[in-house]
Task: inverse folding
């Protein structure tokens, strides 16, 4: 499945575990490869347009995140442990660099899971891998 199609599936169907490829030629499922628990924070306007560690420009409206070690382009489902809201983000940067946080979300992703006001929240990260079925 192409990067573009994978990203579109992740964004538009974040609560589903499968999506079809164009023309229904190939199906794929999403498998959780590992789960990590910790605190998430977010970053936004101050970094808008700056280069991320992956080389792309940061866009606070995209569903992206910074993680210290996961490979770039890894898809991660982030679930707010306080309210159950989830979002799938793509790793495109390194961080966080403050406290004992495990992930920095884009502003849009933080808004979706409800940690904008608090700035930090308890989360569960499900690292996702696409598999053919």
Result:
């Amino acid at each position: 499945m192409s990067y573009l199609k994978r990203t579109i599936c992740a964004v538009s169907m974040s609560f589903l575990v499968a999506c079809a490829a164009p023309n229904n030629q190939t199906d794929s499922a999403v498998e959780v490869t590992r789960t990590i628990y910790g605190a998430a924070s977010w970053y936004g306007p101050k970094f808008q347009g700056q280069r991320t560690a992956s080389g792309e420009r940061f866009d606070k409206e995209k569903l992206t995140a910074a993680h210290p070690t996961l490979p770039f382009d890894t898809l991660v489902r982030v679930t707010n442990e306080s309210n159950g809201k989830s979002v799938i983000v793509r790793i495109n940067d390194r961080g966080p660099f403050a406290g004992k946080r495990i992930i920095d979300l884009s502003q849009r992703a933080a808004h979706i899971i409800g940690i904008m006001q608090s700035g930090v929240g308890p989360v569960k990260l499900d690292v996702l891998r696409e598999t053919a079925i």
